[in-house]
Design goal:
It is built from 3 helices and 4 strands, in the order H-H-E-E-E-E-H. The chain is α+β, with helices and mostly antiparallel strands and 125 residues long. The two termini are 27 Å apart.
Length: 125
């Protein structure tokens, strides 16, 4: 799956920013950690020192739902590059700086996260 397909997958599963809470972003961060580490172990990542940054920039509505959020990755030669961004205009970005090998764990984590959200909402809808 590529970035555009991942964005479409989010929408096609009936999701929107208003569905996403801070706790959901924590789940996404854990999934990103898992997928980045797995890619490094399997030598599928050209940057073998990449790891999730502890820094997360986010804004939420007064109801606690997502306005925007920026998740970052670090490596031994860079800090705080985009992993996944939820921009205020509704655009979801995936490691715009990265090659297809390096963006794959971000997209894989995002797709797993969308599945998690979809399944969670099935219980309440």
């Amino acid at each position: 799956m590529n970035s555009e397909q991942a964005r479409t997958y989010f929408v096609d599963n009936g999701l929107k920013y208003e569905d996403v809470t801070e706790g959901d972003i924590c789940v996404l961060t854990m999934l990103l950690n898992k997928h980045v580490k797995n890619a490094i172990k399997k030598n599928k990542n050209t940057i073998d020192t990449m790891r999730m940054s502890q820094k997360i920039k986010s804004k939420y509505t007064t109801k606690g739902t997502l306005k925007c959020c920026f998740l970052f990755v670090n490596s031994d030669y860079f800090t705080q590059r985009e992993a996944i961004s939820f921009n205020q205009d509704g655009f979801i970005g995936f490691a715009g700086w990265a090659s297809s090998d390096n963006v794959k764990p971000m997209i894989d984590a995002f797709v797993e996260w969308v599945d998690y959200l979809r399944d969670r909402f099935k219980e309440f809808r």
